[in-house]
Write a structure and sequence with these properties.
Strand content: 25-35%
Radius of gyration: 13 Å
Number of strands: 6
Number of helices: 3
Structural class: alpha+beta
Shape: globular
Helix content: 25-40%
Distance between the termini: 24 Å
Bound molecules: zinc ion
Strand order of the largest sheet: 1-2-3
Number of domains: 1
Order of helices and strands: EEEHHEEEH
Length: 96
């Protein structure tokens, strides 16, 4: 399993940068991460509405490290989503 060596949270740019051992740094916008939140509630919204709405200026305010990924706490109060490493790695190829 690929695990990032470092995660940088840029609260001004509203981005999260993952430094993988054997790949270029991956920069994800906080808003994109919020829209892709993999928690059960967001998954249900995606199934019924097709997408999860997130303000463009939503920010990641806290990161809790887990063995298999990170739990991201967003400025809109949402924080149930646990983003597994592989999920994050794959987001890099599908988002802007
Ligand atoms: Zn969620």
């Amino acid at each position: 399993m690929n695990v990032p060596e470092r995660i940088d949270l840029d609260s001004r740019a509203h981005t999260l940068t993952l430094h993988w051992p054997d790949a270029p740094a991956q920069c994800l916008s906080d808003a994109a991460l919020r829209r892709e939140c993999p928690c059960a509630a967001c998954r249900r919204i995606r199934l019924t509405a097709g997408f999860v709405q997130a303000a463009e200026d939503v920010k990641v305010v806290d990161i809790h490290s887990m063995a298999y990924g990170v739990q991201l706490i967003f400025s809109d109060g949402h924080g149930q989503g646990i983003f597994p490493w592989q999920f994050l790695e794959e987001l890099g190829t599908t988002l802007e």
